[in-house]
C-alpha cells in the first residue's frame, strides 16, 4: 500500500530532515513539499495526497489556516515546536503530533496510525473516489475562534443556517463555519444529508423519531435531541426518499 504524502513546512532544513527519516518507510512516498500555506493548498488540491505532514507555525498563515481553506482534509500529522501542554489547547483530532526535532521512534508510531486509518477506510468504503460528494467517512476541519476540530461527516447530525455562517452540530459542539447552506448542500451526499427547510440540513442517519406536523409538514427529532421541522414542500420529497 503506497501512501502519498506532502510536507508543508516553511523551514527547508526541517523538510529535508523529515524526508530523510521517511526514506526508512517504504510505503510512504513523498510526492511534493511546500514552504507556505498557499503553496501547500495548491499542491494538496491538485495532487490529492493521502497524508500531509503539516507545520503549525508558519509566517503569514498557520497550519490551521491551511486546513480551514481545504474543501476536505487528508490525514494530518502535525510537525511542530509547540510543547505537549500548548497542543492540548487545540481540540484537533489529528492522527498525531510530532514535536521537532522529530524522533524516528515517534515517527514510526505516527505512520503506524496512518496505515491503520487508511486500511480501515479502504475496507469500509472500498477506496472511494476523491471527487464528487463528500461521504460520511470524509473528514472536515472546523475552526471556531481558538478551537479546532477534525470531524467525520457521519458524526455531524445537523447544519443550521445563521446568516452567512452555518452552525455545525456534532457531539456537544456547535461551532460556526463561514459557509452557506446552499454551498454545503452542493457538496454533501444527498443520500445521507437532507435539506429539511430553508434553515436546516439534517443527517438522515441521526433521525430518532418522525411525526406529522401542522400544514402537512413533518417534525423530525434527532438523536441529539434537536427537533427540526420538514417544510411541506420538502415533506413530499422526504416521503419519496424514505418510501413511506
What can you see in these coordinates?
The chain is of the alpha/beta class and 244 residues long. It has 2 domains: 3-125, Rossmann fold (3-Layer(aba) Sandwich); 151-242, LytTr DNA-binding domain (OB fold (Dihydrolipoamide Acetyltransferase, E2P)). The chain has 7 helices and 15 strands. It has helices spanning 12-22, 37-47, 63-69, 84-87, 104-125, 181-187, 232-242; strands at residues 3-8, 28-34, 51-55, 75-80, 96-99, 139-144, 147-152, 158-162, 165-169, 176-177, 193-195, 200-203, 207-212, 218-222, 227-230. A hairpin with a 4-residue loop joins strand 14 and strand 15. 28% of the residues are buried.
Short summary:
The protein is of the alpha/beta class and 244 residues long.
| β-strand amount | 25-35%
The total beta strand count reads: 15
Question: What is the average per-residue confidence, as pLDDT, rounded to a whole number?
Answer: 87
Q: What Rg is obtained from the alpha carbons, in whole angstroms? A: 20 Å
Q: Biggest sheet, open or closed, and with what strands and sense?
A: 5 strands, parallel
What overall form do the CA principal axes indicate?
A: elongated
CATH second-level architecture of the largest domain: 3-Layer(aba) Sandwich
**Count of DSSP-assigned helices:** 7
The helix-strand sequence is EHEHEHEHEHEEEEEHEEEEEH
The main sheet orders its strands as 2-1-3-4-5
> How many domains?
2
Amino acid at each position: 500500500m503506497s501512501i502519498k504524502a506532502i510536507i508543508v513546512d516553511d523551514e527547508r532544513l526541517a523538510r529535508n530532515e523529515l524526508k530523510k527519516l521517511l526514506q526508512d518507510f517504504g510505503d510512504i512516498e513523498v510526492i511534493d513539499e511546500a514552504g507556505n500555506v498557499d503553496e501547500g493548498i495548491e499542491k494538496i488540491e491538485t495532487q490529492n495526497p493521502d497524508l500531509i505532514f503539516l507545520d503549525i507555525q508558519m509566517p503569514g498563515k498557520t497550519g490551521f489556516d491551511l486546513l480551514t481553506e481545504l474543501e476536505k482534509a487528508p490525514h494530518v500529522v502535525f510537525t511542530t515546536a509547540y510543547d505537549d501542554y500548548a497542543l492540548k489547547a487545540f481540540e484537533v483530532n489529528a492522527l498525531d503530533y510530532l514535536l521537532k526535532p522529530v524522533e524516528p521512534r515517534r515517527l514510526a508510531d505516527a505512520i503506524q496510525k496512518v496505515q491503520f486509518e487508511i486500511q480501515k477506510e479502504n475496507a469500509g468504503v472500498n477506496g472511494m473516489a476523491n471527487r464528487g460528494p463528500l461521504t460520511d467517512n470524509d473528514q472536515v476541519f472546523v475552526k471556531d475562534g481558538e478551537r479546532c476540530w477534525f470531524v467525520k461527516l457521519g458524526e455531524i447530525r445537523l447544519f443550521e443556517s445563521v446568516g452567512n455562517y452555518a452552525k455545525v452540530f456534532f457531539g456537544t459542539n456547535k461551532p460556526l463555519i463561514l459557509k452557506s447552506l446552499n454551498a454545503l448542500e452542493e457538496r454533501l451526499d444527498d443520500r445521507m444529508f437532507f435539506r429539511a427547510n430553508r434553515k436546516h440540513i439534517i443527517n438522515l442517519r441521526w433521525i430518532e423519531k418522525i411525526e406529522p406536523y401542522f400544514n402537512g409538514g413533518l417534525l423530525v427529532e434527532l438523536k441529539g435531541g434537536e427537533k427540526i421541522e420538514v417544510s411541506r414542500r420538502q415533506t413530499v420529497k422526504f416521503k419519496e426518499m424514505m418510501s413511506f
